[in-house]
Design a protein that fits this description.
395 residues; alpha+beta; Hypothetical protein af1432; Growth Hormone, Chain: A; four-stranded mixed sheet; three-stranded antiparallel sheet
């Protein structure tokens, strides 16, 4: 047993199996993968990594397990699954996943499963009497794995606390201990909260919404991320560089690869690295779009088509205009609450606050048209003309 001093949770106990897993090459790579991708360009303190987050998630899982009085064997498996839950993340975390998941055949969960089922990590688990397939199943939220991946689970609790601390934004501060000590497990392993945890669950969901609005979806973060994604598209899809290389890279090595690649991908990567970011030429709000506009802006092909049309209208070249459409983070809450009479109900049915969060998320959803600062004027004029029929009257 060793003790790791963590900025968020203080002392974290690490067992012998977990120490071996942490020493594996695949896990050590996470030291070089920032938790929040390009966010450090706006919030300078956001340099924390997936390595730290994995340790924190394991620590919180252990607290859940103790509160739920699980046996030591189950706790050991859940701790291992929590520690490994992000081992499949590529450089820049979610930013690269949006581009490379199709080329590599799956999301970071799928890629992580591959790394756990075969190779150094698999051998470590087997030597310690654990089945890699069972760890993958827990990691994916099967059975008691919901302790890790639930809307009020360990993964979310740690990243909100950690991201709030390192960005200096107070919105992510939540009552994690109240959530942990009011947690209950359903018959199929689903993580629920007792009636006494209602307010803490509401607080967590509010914190997540506010962190998305102010940090994760900050316009400069989105523009930087879209530029880096475009650089990766050019390099891995069009310039003949083997996509399998991406599995071994951390942020620094990926940046180096992009900057030394072909002309367009390298140029965009260099601009991000030196923070010479594109600027907003237009912002298109979801609630002000016609149905046709909403359909167009949720289509990758539709956005590509509009980029080409804007570039042509403004006399620009390919990738001089980038349209960023944020992910849909308004997916609703799946948290269930055990009422005082024992009935289990969805949190959204008994919380007006949770219902209002869904509406607020829709109100914040927007597409951003970005380009070099020197082209903003003409791209803005071209956008106004091109998108005229896609916006509701008076918008």
């Amino acid at each position: 047993m060793v003790i790791v001093k963590d900025t968020i949770h203080g002392n974290i106990k690490v067992g012998e199996l977990e120490r071996k897993l942490m020493d594996a090459r695949e896990f050590q790579r996470l030291r070089g993968v920032k938790q929040l991708g390009m966010t450090y360009l706006v919030y300078p303190g956001a340099n924390h990594t997936r390595f730290e987050h994995a340790l924190g998630t394991m620590h919180i899982v252990d607290q859940f397990c103790s509160a739920l009085k699980l046996n030591q064997r189950e706790i050991g498996k859940l701790r291992a699954a929590a520690l490994l839950h992000d081992v499949g993340h590529l450089a820049f975390s979610h930013e690269s996943e949006a581009v490379l998941s199709k080329l590599l055949g799956g999301s970071h969960e799928v890629l992580g499963a591959r790394k756990i089922l075969k190779g150094e990590i698999a051998e470590i688990l087997k030597n310690e009497g654990m089945a890699p397939g069972e760890i993958v199943s827990l990691m994916k939220g099967k059975k008691n794995g919901r302790i890790i991946s639930s809307d009020v689970g360990a993964d979310r609790i740690d990243y909100l606390l950690r991201d709030a601390h390192y960005t200096g934004v107070a919105y992510g501060v939540i009552d994690s201990q109240r959530i942990i000590h009011t947690a209950e497990l359903g018959k199929k392993g689903e993580l629920m909260l007792g009636w006494g945890g209602l307010e803490s669950a509401e607080s967590l969901l509010i914190a997540r919404y506010l962190m998305f609005s102010t940090v994760y979806m900050h316009h400069a973060v989105r523009i930087a991320a879209s530029m880096m994604r475009r650089a990766m598209e050019r390099v891995f899809k069009e310039e003949g560089i083997g996509v399998e290389n991406a599995l071994e890279l951390d942020d620094a090595r990926m940046t180096e690869l992009l900057m030394n690649s072909g002309r367009r991908g390298a140029e965009l990567a260099r601009r991000v690295q030196s923070r010479k970011l594109y600027k907003r030429a237009a912002v298109l709000w979801w609630t002000r779009m016609t149905q046709e506009g909403q359909k167009l802006f949720t289509s990758a092909r539709g956005c590509e088509k509009m980029e080409r049309e804007l570039e042509e209208a403004a006399g620009l070249e390919q990738d001089d205009v980038i349209i960023d459409v944020c992910e849909d983070y308004g997916k609703g809450s799946k948290v269930r609450v055990v009422m005082e009479d024992g009935k289990v109900v969805p949190l959204a049915e008994i919380s007006a606050i949770v219902k209002s969060i869904g509406l607020a998320e829709q109100m914040r959803w927007r597409a951003i048209v970005a380009c070099d600062a020197k082209h903003v004027g003409k791209v803005k004029r071209a956008s106004k003309e091109l998108f005229k029929g896609l916006m509701r009257a008076g918008s």
